[in-house]
Amino acid sequence: MTHDHDHSHDHSHGAGDDPALDLGVPDAELNPGQLRRRGFLRGAGLLGAGIAGASVLGGAPALADEAVHGLPQARRNPRHGFAWLAGDHHIHTQHSSDAMYRVADQVQHASAYGLDWMVITDHGSVAHAKIGVDKVNPDIVAARELFGDDTLVFQGLEWNIPSAEHGTVFVHPGRNEVAVLKEFESSFDGVVNATTSSSAANEEQALKGLDFLAASVTKGRVQDAMFFANHPARKGLDSPHEIRAWRERQPHIALGMEGAPGHQAAGIPSPLGVGSGRGFYDNSPTADSFAAYPLESYLTWGGYDWMTSTVGGLWDSLLAEGRPWWITANSDSHTVYLDDSVRPAGQDTADYFNANGRYGDPVHGHNGGATTNGDFWPGYYSRTHVGADDFSYASVMRGLRAGRVWVDHGALLDGLDVRLRQAGSRDPGFPLGSAVRVGRGQRLELVITAQKAGKPNWAQFVPALAKVDVIRGAVTGQSTDRDSFHTPDTSVVQTYDVSGQGSSFTLTYALGRVDQPCYVRLRGSDGKRLAVGINGASVDPSGPAADVIGHADPWDDLWFYTNPIWVLPA
Amino acid sequence: MTGQRFCVAGGWGSTRDAEHGYWEARDLIGCGYPYVGTSFEGAERVMVCGADDARDLPELARLFVFPGHAGLAGTLTVADLLLLSGIDEVRGLADTAPSLDALLDTQGFVRPRSHDGRLVLTVRPAEHDRYVPFEQPNPTPCCADH
After folding, report:
1. What share of chain A is helix, strand, coil (3-state, %, to 5)?
2. B61 contacts in A (CB within 8 Å)?
3. Kind of pairing, strands A152-160 and A117-123?
4. CB A280 to CB B94 under 8 A?
5. CA angle A186, A189, A191 (to 5 degrees)
6. Following DSSP, what letter does each residue of B56-118 receive, concatenated?
7. Which of A400, A386, A380, A2 lies closest to A170 in space, CA to CA?
8. Which helix or strand (DSSP H or E) is residue A213 part of?
């Protein structure tokens, strides 16, 4: 499967002949449209100081509230706080060969279960690139009409990343959303172009795909676009150097990974459930796998992917290098545990799917709830909470890019606000995802305000947060080993027992006088399944346990994780 | 090198395919070796390798023929597994060590790997405080219709 499409035009990174991108052209010489676009790109960190943002280190201005090299502008919390919008960027429909629901089914469930935003991500495939990516759009547009006041519905796709795993790619709605996604999929999807196997040439194809997305934004074809790696450790396919390369190549497009994969019902014991690994994480190394990954990387730990759940592991190795790389948590909803609908007879075959780009609409089945399904509806179990300026597509994307994100399972928390500020000050502080420049030796504190779950979750019980861990790591600068997945200077530095706390509580962690660059992130749990971490008790005395294959009740093991805040002394 | 060995590539797409390929053509490939397993050579290249001596196996070869393999079925203690087979060590995840009296449900599918000439079986936690081998007999294929 080759494609002879000429994408030489995708490779421009510079301003070209677009005056909006040429910072040598003053604002006054731009027409209103160009000026508006320049303003947007600047605000999104796509133009100017942030443009080389592969790292939070180096070249940063001295003031804490100015743009930090590599990140969107670090900004103080707004006076009335952010709007925290819950969402899910990984959802399949009848336009995926292994899924079945209408867009409307997924959106109405997501909306009912409280999601504010969601991304439809059907698998990249020949049938999807030719037919499905077009056919799904009117359904998405209709869902925006019906549910748009409650739930924002993005169109995206699940990219078969050349040489790697799957990933979410999505764009801001607009007249070119289908055209850009279709051209992207046709040109850069690993299955469509037979580039999934691990090789240097295919790794370059992945980077060219990211270039294409970046160019689609800078050329104004779409207002915004982004990429997150999905279930990154499931089969050992996303090597550490690939993750580093994605971020470096297009830091405004390649934003992060699933901290927790979907398919969270897959570990429910048979015959009541699938009896597989939680997240369907039950695979073994293949020839395409990164050989140095240990076998424990193929499991989930407390429902989270090993890259994220290991204190001092792969994610921390990126954060310790000063690389912004954010985590999310999603449903990967294909077929829902105990749902009793089925594909319609006659419109349920591979031939039908390939000819029509989708299966027929689901119908009521007569075999009872399917215990062989391993997923939950969007919003039912996994949530990605984004700190947004307002309820809009652009603000959700800006919040995701800024890393103002925390995630939870089973509605463990009603709310979470984390701010870094000078100790004892009344400063509103800096939110999650910030890289904060401070004076050397300044005393700092992390203020954590949490609302425990105040009402039952979708399994009809009120989850009880039992503990909160502060994880702190030294920023050590770029590693010479691009395949590193370990950092020695990150550990759990404080654990709060919050089982006796009321419905809302505030914790203050004193960072002390900070002379060296560091970062902090949070994690918390219902305390039901705890184990010594992979890197030992001195690093993580009471972390998530390895999920038991065929015996992982997802409701009895709930965790939340936040993205980090960096502190960079001048 | 202390004895005879072989390594062949048969265009197999996975370790399972390679196992089937070996059993279908073992007269041609190399019958009678006490250690036979799969090994990766570069991306997407699955080899079948055999040796008279475990020390001659490629590092991290995944063995489906080894002394005693045919007798490993049902649930055994770790001690019995070590006694009944050529497996030298049973290892838990993240370098933990299950006790000798821990129970291991073999699932009828035991694939130790070679580490410095020793056969190491990594196990993972399973239901009822038991262990199962790390590699599952029926893993979820990519984009399966689940």
Report:
1. 25, 25, 50
2. none
3. parallel
4. no
5. 105
6. GSPTT-EEEE-TTGGG--SEEEHHHHHHHSS--EEE-GGG----TT-EEE-TT----EEETTE
7. A400
8. helix A200-218
Chain B closest CA to A266's CA: distance in Å? Answer: 10
In this complex, which of B60, B122, B146 lies closest to A98 when CB atoms are compared?
Answer: B146
DSSP class of A26: -
Report residue B94: phi and psi, to 5°.
55, 45
**Prior bond to A271 cis, omega within 30?**
yes
Residues 6+ positions from B5 with CB-CB distance below 8 Å: B33, B49, B50, B51, B52, B53, B56, B57
Q: Considering just the CA atoms, what is the radius of gyration of chain B in Å?
A: 15
Contact between residue B6 and residue B49 where contact means Cβ atoms under 8 Å apart: yes
If you count DSSP H runs as helices and E runs as strands, how many of each does chain B have, helices first?
3, 10
ipTM score:
0.92
Beta bridge partners of B51: B5, B35
Q: How far apart are CA A128 and CA A97, in angstroms?
A: 9
Q: How many residues does chain B have?
A: 146
How would you write the pLDDT of chain A (570 residues) with one tens digit per residue?
334 444 433 333 333 455 655 555 666 677 767 776 566 555 444 443 332 356 776 543 332 333 333 444 567 888 888 999 999 999 999 999 999 999 999 999 999 999 999 999 999 999 999 999 999 999 999 999 999 899 999 999 999 999 999 999 999 999 999 999 999 999 999 999 999 999 999 999 999 999 999 999 999 999 999 999 999 999 999 999 999 999 999 999 999 999 999 999 999 999 999 999 999 999 999 999 999 999 999 999 999 999 999 999 999 999 999 999 999 999 999 999 999 999 999 999 999 999 999 999 999 999 999 999 999 999 999 999 999 999 999 999 999 999 999 999 999 999 999 999 999 998 899 999 999 988 888 999 999 999 999 999 999 999 999 999 999 999 988 888 999 999 999 999 999 999 999 999 999 999 999 999 999 999 999 999 999 999 999 999 999 999 999 999 999 999 999 999 999 998
- Helices marked H in A81-123: 103-112
Sign of CA pseudo-dihedral A359, A360, A362, A367: negative
* Contact assignment for B146 to A550 by CB distance below 8 Å: no
Nearest to A288 among B41, B44, B145 (CB): B44
Cα separations (Å) of A327 from A214, A304, A446, B14, B47?
Answer: 21, 10, 20, 31, 37
Write down how long chain A is: 570
Q: Judge contact between A166 and A98, C-beta under 8 A.
A: no
Q: Which residue of B has its CA nearest to A165?
A: B142
